[in-house]
Amino acid sequence: MFKRLMFGSAIAIAVIAGLVALYVFRPPAEASRPIEAIPIATVAPVPTAAPAATAAPVATTAPAPTEVAETVEETEAAEPAEALAVASAEEPAAASSGPRIFEIVPSRSQARFLIDEVLRGSPFTVVGVTDQVAGQIAVDPSDPRGAQVGPILVNARTLATDNGMRNRAIRNFILNTNAYEFVTFTPTSIDGLPEAVTVGQAFSFQISGDLTIKDTTRPVTFDVTVTPVSEDELVGSASTTILYRDFGLLIPDAPAVDTVADEVRLELDFVAQPTAG
Questions:
Q1: What one-character-per-residue DSSP string does 124-153 give?
Q2: Which segment of 37-51, 129-143, 165-179 scores lowest on mean pLDDT?
Q3: Minimal CA–CA distance to 238: which of 110, 88, 122?
Q4: Is the CATH number of domain 2-44+98-274 3.30.450.40?
Q5: pLDDT tens, 154-206?
Q6: Distance (Å, whole) CA 200 – CA 264
Q7: Could you tell me the pLDDT band of residue 44, with boundaries at 50, 70 and 90?
Q8: CB–CB of 149/207 below 8 Å?
């Protein structure tokens, strides 16, 4: 009887292990389409830090009513109302170029995660990368503080490390990319934007927002550095650190892995160029 129980238990364990292995290492789904940015015009504006209020000028002593009347009469005599109206019509208000929409160029950008582990007794950093990242930035060079950033999308199905088996485990088990294709960061506020920018000069600020991985959303803040290398190109980087357990993620045990750090570093290097039209 005991042998039969042991034999039955061994079969059950083997079946369960086989099913787990089939689930973890099955061929993951491919990206459904080339990644596309969500147009920034379809999302609510991201609040930015308001500049300090400027004190109103102190009023000078008001002229006497008789002086005001004399001044008005002199003006009307020198410049009839019709002449003033014509002059106003002939002097258009200063044109404002308004914000330009820049879009991340996937082929020149990279999103990645980094997590430290001890592999066979030696420290090792797992790095997963993809160029399938998209997003838009609206910026007016004359008013940098009014810049807006749309949702940033990363196609999790295309994340790749240096190991095919690890890739399958990440896509099938950890991130479940068959059901949740994208990791999304939706900005909610921007702090530290400068009053003015100069071509070739980097500036730094912070973007806070909601990061969604699988079916869990948490607030995070990215440290960002951007360099306007020309009027038609922005180059930048962003980074933050999260705890993977905060997003309900589980990392399966592997015989060769001794320990895995709790923290995951998220990084983005991007190039953004104006959208067509």
A1: EEEEEEES-EE-EEEEETTEEEEEEE--EE
A2: 37-51
A3: 110
A4: no
A5: 999 999 999 999 999 999 999 999 999 999 999 999 999 999 999 999 999 99
A6: 31
A7: low
A8: yes
Chain segment 100-115, per-residue pLDDT in tens: 999 999 999 999 999 9
Using CA atoms, how far apart are residues 36 and 39, in angstroms rounded to an integer? Answer: 9
pTM check: above 0.70? yes
Q: Residues of 223-243 as b/e, b for ≥16 C-beta within 10 angstroms? A: ebebbbeeeebbbbbbebebe
Strands (E), the chain: 100-104, 110-119, 122-130, 133-134, 136-140, 143-149, 152-155, 182-191, 203-213, 216-230, 233-243, 257-260, 263-274
- Map out the domains of the chain as residue ranges: 2-44+98-274
Closest CA to 149 of 69, 105, 208: 208
| Residue given tokens 């910026």 in the structure block | 139
Residue 133 burial (C-beta neighbours within 10 Å; 0-12, 13-18, 19+): buried
Q: What is the pLDDT of residue 208?
A: 98
Residues 6+ apart with CB under 8 A from 97: 140, 141, 142
Distance, CA of 260 to chain centre: 27
